[in-house]
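go over both lines:
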Amino acid sequence: MPLMETSLYQQQIDLYYRKLRYTDTRFKRYLSSKINWKPRLIGIEGARGVGKTTLMLQTIKEQCSNPDEALYLSLDDLWFKSNSLMDLVDYAYARGMSRLFLDEVHRFPDWAQTLKTLYDGYPDLKIVYTSSSLLNVDHSVGDLSRRQTLYRLDGMSFREYLALEGIQYMEPTALPDLLNDHIGIAMEITSRFKILPLFERYCQQGYYPFYRDADEDYLQRLQEVVRTVIDVDIPSVEEISYPTLQKAKTLLMVIAERVPLTPNVSDLFRSIETSRDLGLKLLNLLDKAGILALFSNKPKNYKNLTLPGKIFLNNTNLMWALSPQVDVGCLRETFFLNQLSNSHKVSMPEKGDFRVDNRWLFEVGGKNKKFNQIADIKDSYLAVDDIEIGYGNRIPLWMFGLLY
């Protein structure tokens, strides 16, 4: 192999070494312990900024005794515009690489066919890749569904935030256990530290792990993440024009000013001068990207788009970054919906605020919230803000951040 080509490949390998060297393994996300690492092809999807890259690098650092057993590549690197991924993989494979970690695959042309080619062409190679949640991986070209195991990584829970801050590590609490023993759990936790100031801080900056590096620039960095999603990630998976991307930004800001929004088709889409079909498409793209949370009494269906019953921003941190004024009532509902949606089915009920797993009914509010709307309904609860410990079916809102 020519010396110049070897040098080019070594650039990417050296970049991988540098990233690995500075990867901290002391705190690991909830998904790390849930992934079965045995399958040959593993996909990890999620919104931008939730920590997919760090998860992969931590896995290499903990599971590979020799860094050369693995190779991490970010496919949004400009290097791949003029150099061959397949040649680089072949170079590393010939030198002992047995685990390939590919980041940002949605930024790579013909990504699905490339993964299939790698899977079929290297029968003893294990491949882990990350993608934007915008991708329809299960229905992708190349029939990956028969070959892969797919996982989703969400942003940090309040429980993870407490662990990352070094305040307290605790195992996730299952929802039935929380409902049955919330008083005992809350008494144990609140005997050690004041929980409400930490919960308030988390709601403002704690959902995306990069808050620790960004510090006081966090909300500005979060705005930049949103712009990147719209300007870069969406065009990488959808054929979409520049004027339409500008409409998506306008739509987002209109919603951010009014959340939680009960949308009126005519008013909403007229405000961005677009058709119903295109407006619905933009709403669903922003939902899949983890910027909006479309809330309805029906399961999401990205093939047959319908107008949701309510529209929220995906998480409370986005409210602080995008909304001109944060409404405390909306913030509470956004937190509840965001944390429960990780592993539960949350839908809009006829009475109350949230129906969970078609069983439990919840109203969300402040410490003076009453049972008026859901009185005498079986399995109904209040998720109450501004209290450390609840009683009966009144459960502190912060405790719903302990579920994952």
Summary: The radius of gyration is 23 Å. The longest strand covers residues 126-132. The CA atoms of residues 20 and 370 lie 52 Å apart. The longest helix spans residues 218-237.
